[in-house]
């Protein structure tokens, strides 16, 4: 396989450094970092479970790959090979390579050096490397890989450096406050040592959806703030949001520390799309609402859907709707319903109003599709749907007070989003009724003791303040809850009773127990069938309590 790939790419003439219009010169990307760059807890065998990524378990013969991975006993490619899983696991490089090869004509090569449980303050330190001395090791590996291209007379240029690291620095009392300084020095050292002063760096966000996003919020905030400061100060760096990406489902109620299979596949798409945007390539398909669906002056009921992982639709894929009996049509856009959205905390937003349809960032969708389908014919006026989610958030991020992590505070953005949707419809000449807010309680919150303890209190504060700020004292909230994780420690808190109690004292609060879902493979997250059922349950609750 190695010789086959090199032979194919040797047909490229040596042209030297070329402009972006050059489609012949090999684009070389460096991937580096710790365990979430290595791909810990991803599984090759599970790739086939996720329709947008089917086939990535096979070698990509059109993409070169050179790697050195691990710690005490590092696994190396021993030269260039076709891009492929290195063992039973993989990192973001697989989906990155395919995404790029589908969108640019130039050939692609990836050099990856990653090692779990390592720090920028020591292992990756360019000046005084310690521990596993990864900086000099990585430089040597990159130089060796490039030297092999030189020996083969292959034209190439270093195009980007993808970095995902910081989880271990956040636990070190000296490394945590020095992260911004250390990252700045790290970037400058690579540019100096590779003689590439214009090399662009893509800095991946530490994922707040993991358990660390809950029990180490302050530490993660410190690293996130440092990374944002570095990327804000250096125009050749970009901060890549990843907190909306999927996370492996584990024990302890389902929470985990790593992206796992699906998260790694999405992780790579994030880097690829950022690079493609940087070179002027469009990464999202247009979904225009070509004809406004409502008669001039006619009333519109606006339904607002909000929440976290399952309202966003983390593991619901539109491709699977085609085989879900009775729900095949949900995969098609419905131009009769105007749809506005902000998902992933603004990671993907609609272009104005779009037709209702699958619009998630990875060919995914949420309960909105089956919600609207169930409502069809049951509401005598026009309906529009606005959806606001962040699957990497926790419930305290939605409270009016927020937390110390101000960059995760969603309440003001959520209220502004609702106000904006109402005003948009009014500007088009429609009387607007906000029919209700349909909120699915935080899945992660249910799986972590201290958050589960405060969840109903947080929820009550969000409901009360939203009515005040939207000047709608009787605004209806339809709050759905899936079965909470059944764990000995967690079961000391009867969260279902706590949420139900809110409905007993508030006639405009409806508790939707989504406890009869189709059998689910994972804790916390719902699959395609589960998300469809959730949307139907929410719609039926509204029909019963309009």
Features:
single chain; eight-stranded mixed sheet; Rossmann fold; 16 strands; 546 residues; 16 helices
Can you walk through the features of this model?
The protein is α/β, with parallel strands linked by helices and 546 residues long. It folds into two domains: 260 residues, 3-Layer(aba) Sandwich (Rossmann fold); 245 residues, Rossmann fold (3-Layer(aba) Sandwich). 33% of the residues lie in helices and 18% in strands. The chain is built from 16 helices and 16 strands. The strands form two sheets. Strands 1, 2, 3, 4, 5, 6, 7 and 8 form an eight-stranded mixed beta sheet that branches. Strands 9, 10, 11, 12, 13, 14, 15 and 16 form an eight-stranded mixed beta sheet that branches. Helix 15 links the parallel strand 15 and strand 16. Helix 3 runs parallel beside helix 8 and helix 14 runs parallel beside helix 15. The longest helix has 21 residues. It is globular. The termini are far apart.
How many helices does DSSP assign? 16
Helical proportion, percent range: 25-40%
CATH arch. level architecture of the largest domain: 3-Layer(aba) Sandwich
User: What is the overall pLDDT average?
Assistant: 95
CATH topology of the largest domain: Rossmann fold
Number of domains: 2
Tell me about the biggest sheet?
A: 8 strands, mixed
- Output the structural class: alpha/beta
The radius of gyration computed from the alpha-carbon positions, rounded to a whole number of angstroms, is 24 Å
Detail the poorly predicted runs.
7-19
């Amino acid at each position: 396989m190695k010789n086959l790939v090199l032979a194919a790419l040797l047909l490229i003439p040596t042209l030297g450094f070329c402009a972006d219009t050059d489609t012949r010169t090999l684009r070389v990307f460096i991937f580096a970092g710790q365990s979430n760059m290595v791909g810990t807890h991803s599984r090759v065998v599970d790739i086939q479970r996720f329709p947008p990524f089917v086939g990535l378990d096979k070698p990509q013969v059109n993409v070169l790959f050179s790697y050195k991975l691990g710690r005490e006993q590092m696994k190396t490619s021993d030269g260039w090979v076709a891009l492929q899983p290195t063992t039973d696991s993989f990192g973001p490089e697989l989906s990155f390579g395919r995404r790029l090869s589908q969108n640019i004509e130039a050939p692609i090569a990836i050099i990856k050096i990653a090692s779990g449980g390592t720090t920028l303050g020591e292992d990756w330190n360019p000046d005084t490397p310690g521990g596993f001395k990864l900086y000099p090791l990585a430089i040597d590996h990159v130089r060796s890989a490039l030297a092999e291209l030189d020996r083969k007379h292959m034209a190439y240029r270093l195009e980007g450096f993808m970095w995902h690291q910081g989880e271990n620095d956040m636990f070190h009392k000296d490394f945590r406050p020095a992260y911004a300084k250390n990252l700045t020095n790290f970037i400058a050292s690579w540019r100096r040592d590779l003689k590439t002063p214009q090399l662009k760096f893509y800095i991946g966000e530490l994922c707040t959806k993991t358990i660390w996003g809950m029990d180490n919020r302050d530490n993660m905030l410190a690293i996130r703030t440092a990374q944002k400061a570095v990327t804000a100060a250096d125009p050749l760096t970009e901060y890549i949001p990843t907190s909306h990406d999927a996370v492996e489902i584990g024990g302890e109620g389902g929470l985990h520390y790593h992206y796992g299979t699906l998260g790694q596949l999405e992780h790579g798409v994030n880097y690829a799309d950022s690079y493609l945007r940087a070179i002027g390539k469009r990464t999202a398909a247009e979904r225009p609402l070509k004809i406004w669906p409502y008669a001039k002056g006619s009333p519109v009921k606006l339904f607002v859907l909000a929440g976290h992982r399952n309202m966003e639709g983390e593991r619901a894929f539109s491709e699977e709707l085609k085989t879900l009996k009775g729900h095949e049509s949900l995969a098609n856009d419905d131009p009769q319903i105007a749809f506005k959205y902000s998902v992933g905390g603004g990671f993907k937003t609609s272009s104005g109003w779009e037709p209702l349809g699958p619009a998630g960032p990875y060919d995914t969708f949420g309960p909105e599709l089956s919600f609207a389908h169930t409502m069809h014919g049951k509401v005598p006026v026009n309906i529009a749907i606005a959806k606001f989610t962040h699957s990497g958030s926790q419930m305290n991020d939605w409270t009016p007070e927020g937390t110390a992590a101000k960059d995760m505070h969603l309440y003001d953005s959520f209220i502004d989003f609702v106000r904006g949707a109402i005003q948009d419809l009014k500007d088009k000449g429609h009387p607007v009724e906000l029919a209700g807010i349909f909120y699915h309680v935080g899945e992660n919150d249910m799986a972590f003791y201290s958050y589960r303890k405060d969840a109903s209190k947080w929820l009550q504060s969000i409901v009360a303040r939203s009515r005040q700020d939207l000047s709608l004292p009787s605004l209806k909230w339809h709050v759905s809850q899936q079965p909470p994780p059944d764990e000995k420690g967690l079961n000391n808190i009867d969260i279902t009773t706590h949420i139900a109690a809110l409905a007993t004292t508030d006639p405009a609060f409806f508790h939707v127990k989504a406890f009869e879902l189709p059998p689910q493979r994972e804790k916390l997250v719902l699959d395609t069938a589960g998300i469809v059922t959730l949307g139907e349950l929410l719609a039926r609750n509204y029909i019963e309590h309009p």
